[in-house]
Amino acid sequence: MMAFSKSSARASALRSGLLAGAAAAALAGPAFAQTAAPATAAPAAAAQPETIDAIVVTAQRREQKLQDVGIAVTAFSSKQIASLGIKDSTDLTKAAPSLSMNEYTPSAVVFNIRGVSQNDFGDEQEPPVAVYQDDAYASSFVSSGFPLFDLQRVEVLRGPQGTLFGRNATGGAIQFISNKPTKDFEAYLTGTTGSFNERDFEGAVSGPVRDNVQVRLSAMSAYSDGYIQDLTPGVRDRGGTNHWALRGIVEWQPTADTNVQFISKYARNPHENSAGMYSWEAAYPNAHGQGTYLPANMVNPLLLLGYNPAFPGPNYPTGTDLTGYRNDAIDPQRGGDPWKVATNQDSYTDRTLVDNQIKIEAPLGPFRLTSISDLQNIYKSYMEDASASPIDQVNFRQGAHVTQYSEEFRLSGHFGEHELVMGAYGMGIDGHYTASYSFPAVFNLIPVVRFKQKTTSYAFFAQDEWELPDNFKAIFGARYWHDERKVNYFATDNTGETVIFNTGRVYAFNAAAGAPVTSGITVTPADADKQFSDYSLRAELDYKPSRNLLTYVSFNRGTKSGGFTLSTATPTAGFEVSFLNGIPYRPEVLDAYEIGLKASLPLSTSLNLTGFYYDYHHYQAFAEYGLVETVINLPAQEEGFEAELTTHPIRGLTLQANFSAMDNEVKDVPLPDQTIVTHHLPQDPKTSGSLLARYDYYADWGTAFAQVDATYKGRFCFSVLCAPVEHEAPHTVVNLRAGYTPPNKRWDMAVYVNNVGQEIYRVYTFDVAAYTGQIPSVYARPRTWGLTATYHFGK
């Protein structure tokens, strides 16, 4: 790949195009300001399209119109969520620019914004895209994959948000905001049925119980059979859903200008068969030790090397994994069905989420005080048959009990030309974890891993929005944070291989040598109790020549805390030193430079353009080397361009498009054989985008609509190591939707078909070819259909 200092002509053209577009819009602003109608967002489910000027976001911790905020934000109202058929957090990727995700399972998701992510699947890790549910930070990706129900809106903030959102928002932040209690009675009930015996329900009831007390109760349940057929009798099909959730919100106004909000949430996945949704694909390690797909007529080199004593030669089978298993009918690389497996045991996710929160808003002198107290408990038991074959080759288990408590105090106020926000934040995370990445069939290796991690954090922050003459605004913000992380890690296996890392002892035992490791270890017990401190910055200049045009340029310094890579397996004998020395990793820093415009144009059109440049220091890159997972700090850079367009050229017609183009590199990436290369950021295609067309027909007998949307993603890799098996080809997914609402709008219904063309593409994979001879890949759902209907009660 070309060195970053010699940027491609395409990337330079993107920068030039953005600047030209900004200049053109700025010149045109006064001219169209008198005639432009309000711009509009994506269509409503079955009503008049809502204008984008009506969409209110809290991207700066206060309510503002979306088009008045100098941040790259994509917002989804409740009507848009229904219109796009968004059911869980992973569905957001089909409508938000530069957003992708690693979907280990539907209940364990790591978001990726503009290539910024960390794909470590350890339950103890905090991802760099901060997820907030009703102002409560979700520290673990275990709580990021959850059903969306009874929501007021979702906000996707792209770029570092460290000043006000603070914790680990290097890549951005995603806010999920629930519907609040109402002062009038209202209720609704939604039911959905569809492919794979889908049966989903959602409902809410809201209203006053006293003059100054309102309550809203909402619930959902989802059930479906697995869409991945298991050919083994008695083993459940994989990829099904079986979960439910409850949420209660009480609002109390003790005085006219004080509001107290109580939120309680509970979600349950009881033994859901949504784990280990892997296909079976034969592979072998190439000269760099990276996975390559195995031709059907080739003997797996792992057998030739004698890794499996059951095959001493000379007559080796062809086209198999390390165990000698072969089944071309379920190998997608050989024309097999990606939605069929033949395993020997059930895989499951068992998860419980409990969240309780108190939010108080009250006057305090010239300020408005906001206090948010939150307590979360997460319980998880997970098991997967990772080999996707009838041979007991690879089993992976995880267990977690995480308690998170946090408190945030914010003071906000308007003082002349200044809009001030300042505050303090404190958080504690107490996690207890178990794991086992075992290989019983060939290696007879059964690790047992147990560890605890405790995080204590505090921060102070402030931001000032300063209205300047001539329609300019300056924004300055800063945040100082301090973390302490303490870990107690113990790993052993049935061979006697042992690693200990805690504040009292650092120890490794080489089972093959029958002796402790006595030299080369540089980490000490003090390294098991690390303290990190840093700061985030924001500086922005906005210019608004008319009410229909905003241009801005900004600098953001985003930071993410350091931590520990706590592997789910023991090291191979002889690699204990690199295993232990690789446990701690450093904080990462992202300097982000951004220029953008938000314009409301004639024909009820909105156009948002963004260009950015990222300079990464100590990028936290996740990599797997053999049986060991690790995070390494590397330098990285990126530049990109994003465009969002929504228009209503005629009554009833909505057209929407977004486009992203990226150019990036990660330097000094060590491959398994220690070759140093330059690669791209993971899951960050050079080009991606989406289109939506919808027509609403209004008549005396009601409203009918028809909608088509399509999402395109270019070629990318699933990890920074970018093994040949981790390359994902470009793909396009098309969905259809149509519906009807009667004149009284008391009920509505819609039918849909998702993935109409049955596009075959992956949402997750990882390279384990060097020790299994196969690759586990998770393929997206095949074509599905459904019917959904909603009935509204009350006014």
UniProtKB/TrEMBL annotation:
<keyword id="KW-0406">Ion transport</keyword>
<keyword id="KW-0408">Iron</keyword>
<keyword id="KW-0472">Membrane</keyword>
<keyword id="KW-0998">Cell outer membrane</keyword>
<dbReference type="InterPro" id="IPR000531">
    <property type="entry name" value="Beta-barrel_TonB"/>
</dbReference>
<dbReference type="GO" id="GO:0009279">
    <property type="term" value="C:cell outer membrane"/>
</dbReference>
<feature type="domain" description="TonB-dependent receptor plug">
    <location>
        <begin position="66"/>
        <end position="173"/>
    </location>
</feature>
<feature type="signal peptide">
    <location>
        <begin position="1"/>
        <end position="33"/>
    </location>
</feature>
<keyword id="KW-0675">Receptor</keyword>
<keyword id="KW-0732">Signal</keyword>
<dbReference type="InterPro" id="IPR012910">
    <property type="entry name" value="Plug_dom"/>
</dbReference>
<keyword id="KW-1134">Transmembrane beta strand</keyword>
<comment type="similarity">
    <text>Belongs to the TonB-dependent receptor family.</text>
</comment>
<protein>
    <submittedName>
        <fullName>TonB-dependent receptor</fullName>
    </submittedName>
</protein>
<keyword id="KW-0812">Transmembrane</keyword>
<keyword id="KW-0798">TonB box</keyword>
<keyword id="KW-0813">Transport</keyword>
<dbReference type="GO" id="GO:0006826">
    <property type="term" value="P:iron ion transport"/>
</dbReference>
<dbReference type="Pfam" id="PF00593">
    <property type="entry name" value="TonB_dep_Rec_b-barrel"/>
</dbReference>
<feature type="domain" description="TonB-dependent receptor-like beta-barrel">
    <location>
        <begin position="310"/>
        <end position="756"/>
    </location>
</feature>
<keyword id="KW-0410">Iron transport</keyword>
<dbReference type="Pfam" id="PF07715">
    <property type="entry name" value="Plug"/>
</dbReference>
<dbReference type="InterPro" id="IPR039426">
    <property type="entry name" value="TonB-dep_rcpt-like"/>
</dbReference>
<dbReference type="InterPro" id="IPR036942">
    <property type="entry name" value="Beta-barrel_TonB_sf"/>
</dbReference>
